[in-house]
Amino acid sequence: MAQKQGIDWSSLWKKDEWMAVWWGFLIIILVLAGVPVKIPSFKWTTDGEFQGLVKTATPMVEKLAKDAEQKGEKAVEEKAKALLGSMAKGERAAIGKAGKELEAASKDAKDSGIKKKAADLGKDLGGQAGNLAGKVFSWDNIWRAIQIGIAYLILSVIAMALMGERVGAFIPGFVVVFVIAWISLFIAGNYTILEYGLEYVLWCLALGLFVSNVIGIPGWLKAAVKTEFFIKIGLVILGSGILFTEIIQAGAYGIVQSVLVVACIWYFTFWVAKKMGVDDEFAAILSSGVSICGVSAAIATSGAVKGDPKKLSYVTSIVLLCAVPMLVGQPLIAKGVGMPDVVAGAWLGGTLDTSGSVVAAGALISDTAMKTGVIVKMSQNVLIGVAAFILSIIWTFKKTEGLPEGEKPGLIEIWYRFPKFVLGFMVASVVFSFLLDPKVVSATKGALGGLRTWWFALAFTCIGLETRFKDLAELGGGRPAAAFLIGQGVNIIWTLILAYLIFGGLIFPAPKL
To answer: What is the 3-state secondary structure (H, E, C) of 115-174?
Structure first.
């Protein structure tokens, strides 16, 4: 007979999953209350990269100036020609200033096409001109990172003390983990690296793996490797950015495609992984990474099924490595076969794993492709919370399978096994979706997103620090990677079929975007 258990109220402050919920809520509340948060910038573009961008953008600015002249948009025409003059001279600061002036002039343009092109070109050139490595290393920017580090250290120390962990050893270790995370964010902020979608999590893993496998980890540093704690706080905050209202904004077409992609590809990838001998936990993380939205979905799923961080590291790495050829190849295929822009955008949005990569790839085709891709991607992103909630329930009951009837746990034990961060995630998502003013949601989005990124950066650095190359090589003997690639291959084909059926006018009237 299973021994009946009462409610252990001390778990509310002794368990990392509850502490993660409380700290996640506290951070959200402080941001909503107006506590000023300045997120450090890590974007930097070398002079060589900037000159390459100028060379690429020159014909586009020339066309903008010509179109503006034909349509009587005098202000945009003048600023575009001024920008061309600065671009011809190659002076970065002057180009940046002219780009910002073009962006400002676009606001008064009457023609919607001219307005958008001028705004986009001006913003891109003006912004990249100012993205200097020196600004990343400026005292003001470094001080912003230090303030976040101090705040996170205080929160973490309080949590470690309440949970009975070694606080004295945790403090110096946390500083090292934070510095590694900072370096990773700096590397990931480079223009070319951003263009290829090599996100910060990959660099956090890589540097962490380098330290653990080449240099080695002393005992005092191990005390600060708290992957689960860091990642669960980030997931609770992530809930504030997953808005159910975005499903409505995405429209019926995006919803239909996203549901069909996620449902079919998730099950197919899971089935393939199981056939290849991959365990349920690993298969679930793989399936979410392929079908929903890559890294974020894999993180949420790993938390929901209480997965091994090494498996999450494996999936994250392969997701990001596969993203590079897809980012480059899919737009080339779409343009090469003459695919309708709206169909191409729907295809990109359903297969590429981040909103940034969808925007970058869509921009290589057209504004319509980019807009359509973002709409579809928004729909899929919202499904992260739904999938995590469903999987957490399934996995909670799954652990009771095979037990004799008399030994099966009661509701209290099932509640103990349920991952609490999912509740925090869902509460944050519901509050930001339905209870807060959209203006408040918009105003706090940047700060919460930046703070979430820091928690995830710490978590993935810790995953790298506690993982050995040998461990990754031994995870499934290559079978998980094969299952992922098969699932991704089918995902690309299935999503393309759905894009043609739903957005191509074969079943529904083709949307006009």
So the answer is: HHHHHHHHHHHHHHHHCCHHHHCCHHHHHHHHHHHHHHHHHHHHHHHHCCCCHHHHHHHH
Domain ranges within the chain, ordered by starting residue: 47-131, 242-312+334-398+418-448+469-503
**Percent of the chain residues topping a pLDDT of 70:** 90
| Measured distance CA(344)–CA(198) in Å, rounded | 22
pLDDT in tens, 153-196: 999 999 999 988 888 889 999 999 999 999 999 999 999 998 88
Displacement of CA 224 from its chain's centroid (Å): 24
Task: Give yes or no for residue 474 having a pLDDT over 90.
Answer: no
* Distance (Å, whole) CA 488 – CA 285: 14
E-only strand ranges, 372-512: none
- Residue 3's pLDDT band, with cuts at 50, 70 and 90, is very low
Taking Cα atoms as reference points, which of 201, 198, 349, 345 lies closest to residue 262?
349
User: What is d(CA 398, CA 392) in angstroms, rounded to the nearest whole number?
Assistant: 10
Amino acid, single-letter form, for residue 20: A
Is the predicted pLDDT of residue 65 greater than 80, yes or no?
Answer: yes
CA 360, CA 374: separation in Å to the nearest integer?
10
The model's pTM: 0.79
Contact 305, 329 (CB under 8 A): no
What is the CB neighbour count within 10 angstroms for residue 271? 14
